[in-house]
Amino acid sequence: MTNPALLIEIKDLSHVFQGQEHQEIKALSAVNLTVKAGEFLVILGANGSGKSTLAKHLNALLLPTEGNVIIDGLNTDDEKVLWDIRQRVGMVFQNPDNQIVATIVEDDVAFGPENLGLPPAIIKERVEEALFMVDMLEYRQHAPHLLSGGQKQRVAIAGIVAMRPKIIVLDEATAMLDPKGRQEVMSVIDKLKQEGMTVILITHHMSEATLADRVVLLDQGKIKAQGTPREVFAQREMMRDLGLDIPPMSQLAEMLKEAGIIESDDVLDVEDLVKLLCP
Fold it and tell me: What's 6-246's CATH class?
């Protein structure tokens, strides 16, 4: 029996890949995770921790070796509902060039809704709404290959938004972008949150993780910790043992505390630091 208040329920999920010479590689091991509708969840972990493998289970690009993944009440082990699951979960990947299929921005955004068989008037309306949301409406007639990396990624997100999924999963979607491009994408994520979209971001940029409602930390295919950003980043020794950084403002606060300038290093962002420096 599923809980109707939860949009995602992952129960005892394990995934094994077959390596060379039939060697088994366990990418995920007994993962249990739930996500509420409208939540902004960030998944962190070092390379090889299982982040992307977990992401691909959310829209059934991968299926469990053991356990269950239930999306909006639909179990990915049921082949009859895989199309329905993929309509509910949109994926944005690392390289925006690999996601663009058309030579004009608005045609690219329309590609998904067209494949859903929607009427042309509805498609036009959705394309305009999606491009407006990602602040790319003025580029609707542009060629995608002439856009910056951040703009391309915003077009990719618009293409997903136009299909009206319940969940958007961004798998290292800012990894190949410069700081300006990352800021553009994070601004779109903030808009999606305000619209009530459920957003799951896989990232290695700790400053992005500080904006989440909840952070999940993966290590060797298992959940090592989860909680609010403040709760997770407070476990600094564990983070460093796993080869992960802490947010830049947290690092600065540590140095200021060691220098005797501030008394506490409980800092996530600039606002926290300002409050300590200017009480």
Answer: alpha beta
